[in-house]
Write a structure and sequence with these properties.
This protein has about 350 residues and is of the alpha/beta class. It is about 35% helix and about 20% strand. Helix 5 (about 130-145) packs across helix 6 (about 165-175), helix 7 runs parallel beside helix 9 and helix 10 (about 265-275) packs across helix 11 (about 300-310). Bound molecules: S-adenosyl-L-homocysteine.
Length: about 350
Amino acid sequence: MALVTLYDLNRDALGALLADEPRFRVDQLWEGLYRHASPVAEMSNLPAALRNRLTAEHPDALGEIRASVTDDGDTVKWLWALADGAQVETVLMHYPKRSTVCVSTQAGCAMACGFCATGQAGFTRNLTSGEILEQVVRARQHAAPRRVDNVVFMGMGEPMANFDRTWEAVERLHTDMGLSARSLTISTVGLIPGIRRMTAESLPVNLAVSLHAADDTLRDELVPINRRYPLAELMDACAEYVTTRRRRLSFEWALIDGVNDRFSDAEQLAGLCQPLRAHVNLIPLNPTGGFATRGSPPQRVAAFADRLRRLGVNATVRANRGTDIDAACGQLSAATPARPDTSVELGPTRRSP
Ligand code: SAH
């Protein structure tokens, strides 16, 4: 069972927890948790006895097993142990003008995409909203004084298969941490009921759909859930999202050598993008233990992107961050790294020698 942490509690529940305290303490605690993302032990406006009680009764959800750093300190991956021993990963990426944190919504994943390390490892359990939020909080604490500008739900797990808790985290990030809806992106393998629920919510976050194939035969193979939610229906759900929420839709496409990187694939993909004005994120397939086929070579990636652009599609090639610490797309599996020398105790900033 997951532990109930402070980030799992709403304001009323926190109020009940502080029933014996003056009422302004709830505001102080709430501000400390959300506006400042401070550890309770460092909330110096709270009396020490209260801080001690709160940390004893509601310890952090995430125990740091390991932090791995690369890209001169600009990419950090954490491996966390949850209270019941389940493990998840979080990745923080600093870019020149912004910082993004990639969070997990489940320990493992049940979607079974063969090319994804998380899918290869199988499903453990859903995360609570507090476990999802705390990943952002810990990344914020590490990033300071830089801000975390964007949160992408692209870590381990399928957010739409854990919709309620994911959405609770989205609302808290927006309302209490002050992140704009356009800085939040939910990525899904294409669970239509989840896309429809997102459409019904008023907060217009970005939607990313992991497409990888533009015909059902190939997609059935690469993304098995396609057998249940085939492309035509998926595109209808996407269209509804775009027209209702007026938010950019993007398709993720991991380029797999000789599998989905032909010009005919680009043309089929363009055909799906055009009516939706969808943006394409191309990701050269990252290597994982359970999938033998490799990513497309760089010239092929460039040619594929070029073909899409000539067809009027806005396509970007996603910079591959953190492949050397298995922190890149599709490489999160909570497995012990092959190269333990990349695991370090984090100091304020780490530079390569
Ligand atoms: N389950 C959700 C959230 C995970 S996002 C989803 O599938 O969208 C992780 C992204 O990385 C997805 O687009 C996924 O398809 C992609 N991915 C998975 N394995 C990959 C790999 N080996 N190389 C590159 N991208 C990969």
